[in-house]
Amino acid sequence: MHTSRSIPLSLAAPVVFFWASGYPTGALGVAAAPPFLLTAVRLALAAAVLTAIALVRRAAWPTGGDLGHSAAAGLLTHAMQFGGCYGGMAAGVHASVTALVISMNPVLTASLAAVLLRERLSRWRLLGLVLGVLAVLVTLGGQVAAEGEWNPAILLTLIGLLGFSAGGLYQQRYCGGIDLRSGAAVQTATAALVIGVLALVEHGHVTQWAQAGISVLWLVITGSVLGVSCYLRAVAVGGAARASALFSAVPPFTAVLAWPMLGETPSVAVVLGIALATTACVLGTRTETREPARV
């Protein structure tokens, strides 16, 4: 049985920073190159780095069923998440809005855990789910009001959210005994192959090689290698629900970084959405305590 404990600040802080910086950097990347091409190159380079690390450290490689589980987790956590997020940003979804949608991961993860893993869903978590949905609706409503129309590309971002949440639960359920280094290498390699196939049929080409190259380099080092490794470690230490709770801090950091990097001034709707999302994440992933039975 999986036993979780609190996640130390030394592990939580890097997860938040790496993920927050990835959204504005990803937006700069898709502005210079097609989204699936950018994602495929990022994942392929990350897979090469992670493979080298696993080989140097002589990590045990997953085989048989564990290999299949690692591949499945990679398709959910990497292919669906990054393909959906970058596809949405390439079609006009703001980096801060993308981060806010993905920050709903804790609430969605807690809900899926209740259904799939039979974890208890308390009234507080239900309230968190309601507030999480409200946060997304408020933010998207503000974006529609500002732009004058609904951007259907947000559906790609929602697909990314679903993949991220499902991937964390799959990791917790089936990949607990797999070495994090070799497992991450298999996951990113599998996702790179799938996204690479999509990149072959997408339109567009690289317009700014320097900007695309710097973006990919940053995303590989801080996102696919350091960020994912820290996240998987957080899942192993505290469980999927506690690890996903860290993402309540990502939208505010993303909004701060997107302001100077992309010129995206946070709107009132985004600020309100961040406040609601943070509350939702705290409620949706709080640890329930039970008083001992009286005799």
TrEMBL record:
InterPro entries to which the protein is assigned, alphabetical: AA-Vitamin_Transporters, EamA_dom, EmrE-like
Transmembrane annotation, as ranges: 39-56, 68-89, 95-117, 124-146, 152-170, 182-201, 213-232, 244-262, 268-285
Family annotation (PANTHER family): EAMA DOMAIN-CONTAINING PROTEIN (PTHR32322:SF2), INNER MEMBRANE TRANSPORTER (PTHR32322)
Keyword Phosphoprotein attached: no
Keywords: Membrane, Transmembrane, Transmembrane helix
Membrane topology category: Multi-pass membrane protein
Pfam families per record: EamA
Annotated family: Belongs to the EamA transporter family.
Official protein name in the record: DMT family transporter
GO cellular component: membrane
Localization of this protein: Membrane
Residue ranges constituting the EamA domain according to the UniProt record: 11-140, 152-283
